[in-house]
Amino acid sequence: MTSQRIAGLGRIDRRCRCTGEKPRTVPRQPGALAVSGGLLIPTATSADQQDLEAEILLAVTSLTGARNGRAKHVVNRVHPMPDGLRLEIDSDAIDCFLGVSLPVLHDGKLRGIPGLRPRPSRDFVDLRVLGGTASVRVHGISRTRWREALCHKDTRGVPLWRDNRDEMDEREVSALRARGMRPLEVMSAVLRRFGLFEGADRVESKVSAKDVEIEWVGGPRADVVAAVLTESDCRIPGVILDGGSCLGLRRMVRLVATHGCDDAPAQPEWAWAELRNDGRGADPEFRDSDVMRTAWACSDITKLFLLLRKLGMTKKQIAARTGLATANVSEILRGRQVRSDRDLVAIASGLRLIEEQTSPDCPDDIRRCMA
């Protein structure tokens, strides 16, 4: 294998760590990898496309920022292209995602993305904005899943997204005019790199005229994310870092749009090394904490989950408590071992919440597993 081929594999791995893509899918996309030394993640080329992706970023982070447990994890992976974007939404978050994205009138107030119209297909839904060419394709929504999502939608509002006219409602037009200045290119670029926050329990965004502030809980450290977003070949062009912090499990970076030159800096190999470990950049002191030791003490997670099921908890309740996907809970109940530090930390944290809320007559087996 040539050194050029080895370098190419490294670039694919780095891109996939930021997007969540599978390595085998990247080379099949035209222009997926730039020439040597170039950026690996393309920028949306049109202002309309950047605007739509910026709105979807706000929708996604409004869900992962919610504290009601509805959508702890929203985006599984992104497939960025110069003229469009493909998203894979977690099946448990589809209803919520459509609920905050599709425009609806509630008591005369507009909710959702103005002008957004869905076009369902066999196994995906295209989200397009009237009056332009911007489009985001959302995978994981079959026709059956689309109908199920519609059944769960709030029927109290007026669904403007059902309007078949080729023009926006006047309330949508007014909402567009009322928007202030925002760094659309930066917001779009953050969405295209959303896989970088894998392992975070919650991702939130705050936007001003020139900067985007991203906050998250758990997952990679702030300095690791900052290095990838500003120094690597997966960086966001034309941005500088204006602050970052780690306080316990809370992390934050603030990105500011600039108009200077975008010289290629040295590759932050230390940051990629952090992201390659099982803890996804977790603080060493956290990996050695009481929570981590509790997780290892309860390493027979299958037995524990079976006991929780006997106690009356559903698979979805266990998933919500521990931060795991419902499908992963099902696999663990069938005997799959849990070896990931990140999953063990999430389970241990969730078990502490269960312990705090468990009644005095809880079976002793459960208490011993949570001790």
Automatic annotation (TrEMBL):
Supply the CDD domains for this chain.
HTH_XRE
- Secretion signal span: none
Supply the PROSITE patterns for this chain: HTH_CROC1
User: Domain HTH cro/C1-type: where?
Assistant: 310-357
Annotated Gene Ontology MF terms? DNA binding
Domain of life of the native organism:
Bacteria
Q: What is this protein called?
A: HTH cro/C1-type domain-containing protein
